[in-house]
Design goal:
370 residues, alpha/beta, TIM Barrel, three-stranded parallel sheet, 14 helices, 9 strands, globular, binds ligand V47
């Protein structure tokens, strides 16, 4: 089963365990992150990916809505944030402006709005429920994936309501899924240094666990390539694996590469392409209970995202259309891609593009047999 070229690999025991479907430990995860045998790591992550998904690579037609970048918190890695609307480069959209921005997508076959913003200091909770209701009314076929756990935790603080009450109200207004942001690195040491003001790891998990209990699926991320240690990366991923064992509510895992332009960690520089591939591969191998590993092309760049599709990733995210968080931090990718180009990107990587909706249901092409 293991190709002869890898039989003498220093991670041979981990190849055997992964191929046999045995669960990996924290120590195993650290060895995978630190191994020099990159070919063996890539091979086994790809093997597990193909065993589960074959060549299938999911993408979707989506559009990001970053309604405001005004934020109460000043995370050191963030280039998107502005402390008030008076600062250069700050914006906040009314519900009417949100609707105007997405009006051209009416009946265009879009499957998802990905809606996140800063933790706005002044907007009332009704702004968020009104926005969801208005979007649902104008675009009933588009799933609303909205608000990171950090925004949700803040809504609870703002209203004095429990997370369950907040999420229930948002669900009634149209919320269908939560994105995976705000996770950063769960270790207290790292959060204290880079994002000490916002919700801690326990609160992030409470939000996701409550969402899952209410039937709202979520994604999860890891922001890597700044001050975290290898052990902290692995601990982060294993905490997500534990959550998934409890709830099965995670749809996808998205390792996010730190982007250095225009933020206070700039001097650290960006992680390498090799680190990007390692993160995809180790995510695939440790998260044996999460079906989808996403190579978010906006963040990886198109070429690295193509490689990631042979390193464990089976999803490339979507058409996106208008992206600010990574472009304000130095991303050189386009801010969006047409569906045709996205399919080509997947095909150029030797994979089979399959359109999905926000929940990973396959979208049948018009005219295809049911
Ligand atoms: O939480 C912010 C990260 C996240 C930087 O769920 C940065 O489908 C790198 O979560 N360099 C938001 N990362 C993005 C996000 C996401 C993206 C795509 C898909 C999904 C999904 C979720 O972006 C933040 C933070 O971890 N981030 N600034 C930066 N300079």
């Amino acid at each position: 089963m293991i190709p002869s070229v890898f039989r003498g690999s220093p991670i041979r025991d981990l190849l055997d365990k992964s191929v046999a479907g045995e669960r990996l430990t924290l120590e195993d995860g650290v060895r995978l992150f630190e191994t020099d045998d990159l070919h063996a790591l890539g091979w086994v992550a790809n093997h597990v990916r193909e065993a589960r998904h074959g060549d299938t690579t999911y993408y979707l037609k989506n559009r990001h809505i970053n309604y405001s970048n005004v934020c109460k918190y000043d995370c050191m890695f963030c280039s998107f944030y502005r402390s008030s609307i008076d600062q250069e480069g700050a914006w906040e959209w009314s519900v009417e402006q949100v609707l105007l921005h997405v009006a051209p997508y009416k009946d265009s076959g879009l499957r998802e709005f990905h809606i996140v913003g800063g933790v706005h200091p002044h907007l009332p909770f009704s702004y968020y429920t009104d926005m969801l209701r208005a979007l649902k009314e104008a675009h009933p076929g588009v799933a609303l994936k909205a608000f990171t756990a950090i925004e949700i935790a803040y809504f609870a603080e703002l209203t004095g309501k429990s997370l369950r009450e907040v999420l229930t109200e948002l669900k009634h207004a149209g919320l269908q899924m939560l994105p995976g942001g705000g996770a950063e690195v769960f270790a207290d040491r790292v959060r204290y240094k880079v994002c000490r003001d916002k919700a801690d790891a326990d609160r992030w998990f409470e939000v996701h666990e409550t969402a899952h209990a209410l039937g709202i699926p979520t994604n999860a991320t890891l922001l890597y390539g700044h001050i975290e240690t290898t052990e902290e990366r692995v601990d982060h991923i294993l905490r997500l694996r534990d959550l998934q064992d409890r709830t099965s509510g995670l749809k996808s895992y998205i390792p996010l590469a730190y982007h250095p332009d225009g933020n206070r960690l700039q001097k650290l520089g960006a992680p390498t392409g090799v680190d990007a591939l390692r993160n995809i591969a180790v995510g695939r191998l440790l998260l044996d209970n999460v079906a989808h590993i996403k190579a978010y092309w906006i963040m990886l760049g198109i070429k690295t995202a193509q490689l990631a599709l042979s390193w464990g990733a089976n999803d490339i995210d979507g058409t996106v259309t208008w992206e600010r968080i990574y472009h304000m931090a130095g991303s050189q990718t386009p801010e969006g891609m047409t569906e045709e180009r996205l399919r080509e990107v997947i095909e150029e990587a030797g994979r089979l593009p399959v359109e999905r909706d926000a929940f990973y249901n396959v979208v049948q092409p018009l005219g295809a047999p049911a």
